[in-house]
Amino acid sequence: HFPDLLRFDPYLAFPTAAPVPAPPLYDWLLGAIAHWLGGGSDTLERLAAWAAPVLGGLGVLPIVAAGRSLGGAGIGLTAAALYALLPVAVNFARVGDADHHAGVALLGALLLAQTLALARGASLRRSLALWTALALTRVALVLTWSGSLLYVAVADGVLLGLGMLA
User: Fold this and answer.
1) DSSP letters along 3-56, please?
2) What average pLDDT does the segment 86-97 reach?
3) Among 34, 78, 109, 154, which residue's Cβ finds the most Cβ atoms within 10 Å?
4) What's the predicted TM-score (pTM) here?
């Protein structure tokens, strides 16, 4: 039913149903992409089945970037390998797992990489691009999972602390 948002789900708290407690961005984006690809429930099902492995795989890229900013390419690749082998990362990136966890992990890794890149310092143009990307990532994270407010608070605390030290 794209572009409608699912506000009440008959399968939550079955058999009585319940309001959907999660922010709508992840589900809405899956619906938007499925609609763009041609619509239909079959398209949405295939997309939902493959979204977690794709997002989980993309999650290693900002982890490599974060590790590189801390200690070079070797640290970045090691961090990405450790992430890719973590049982929780493997579990959340399974084919058929249509939940938001792999997307949240990708956005959290982006938030970390962007925060570390800002902490290292950059030209004015790069800093503006990083601040813009950081703001967009924060909004996407909060609109994907309400528990991500904790991640945003930690990243903001790091940035505030760095600003106080500068």
Assistant:
1) TS---EETTTTTTT-EE--S-SHHHHHHHHHHHHTT-SHHHHHHHHHHHHHHHH
2) 92
3) 109
4) 0.85
